[in-house]
Amino acid sequence: MTYVMSLCLLGLVVGMVAVASNPSPYFGALSLVVVSGFGWGVLVGYGGSFLSLVLFLIYLGGMLVVFAYSAALAAEPYPETLGSWPVLVSMLMYFGVVVLMFVAFLGVEGYSWFVVDEGDWQAMFRGDMAGVALMYSHGGGMLMVGAWALLLTLLVVLELTRGLSRGGLRAV
Fold this sequence. Notes:
It is built from six helices and no strands. By secondary structure, the protein is an all-alpha fold. The chain has two domains: 1-122; 125-171, no CATH class. It is globular. It comes from Lagocephalus lunaris. It is a multi-pass membrane protein. This is NADH-ubiquinone oxidoreductase chain 6.
């Protein structure tokens, strides 16, 4: 299980570096799908089965539609790929930052991994289920803030993918 979790965490970091360094929306959306899949694997490995289902269904079902729509409107004749020189240089810079942060946090005391269902006091309930109950009981305001943030993200992505004279809000 340790090897599987290490593979999922490594894939998560590599996917996030690919998302951060990729200027093309086509390959950025593909990298986001990979990151979501590895994040799902990490959450399943640490005992958050409901959270992983929510991540996989909501993120891929909702946000990927926005990225697919904005990628369709941002038609580039020659998009930058992951193997092109500028993207490769920025990926190496991001990997350098990841390695530096790893070395910086390597000697920190009290930093350890903890699986959700390991403790004796957690035998009665699961951490992700308690969080869902708390979200539905006291999280109405936060739900509205999340909906507003998603709407703002949609408008920002549509504005960023706007060309010189064409935009996301044009008549097709």
